From TrEMBL:
Record bears the keyword Signal: yes
Keywords, in A-Z order: Plasmid, Signal
Originating organism: Parasedimentitalea psychrophila
Domain of life the protein comes from: Bacteria
Protein name stated in the entry: SPOR domain-containing protein
Signal peptide feature range: 1-23
Amino acid sequence: MKHLLWKPALIAAFLGLTTPALAADCYADYKAKQDNPLRLHYGVVQLSGACQKAAARAEIRNRIAPQGWTLLNVISVFGPEGLQQRKPDAGSYYLRF
């Protein structure tokens, strides 16, 4: 009987380890561009999806596209400890999107 209770716990633990963490306090910094005329910006966004670079690419791309921006690169994904050091470089694109 004990093995019947043990298996669901093992499966839940396995799924918890393989599922990406959600972005409670997750941020990403990125570079983007606009054409005609060429404009570049560096920005920082708070992520609402998975706290991973691949997921951040899609999320950032979808957020900045309506304003005519094209994502060039997601530089890094980080926690709240990295916000203040990036704020001066991001300027008006700090948590804008």
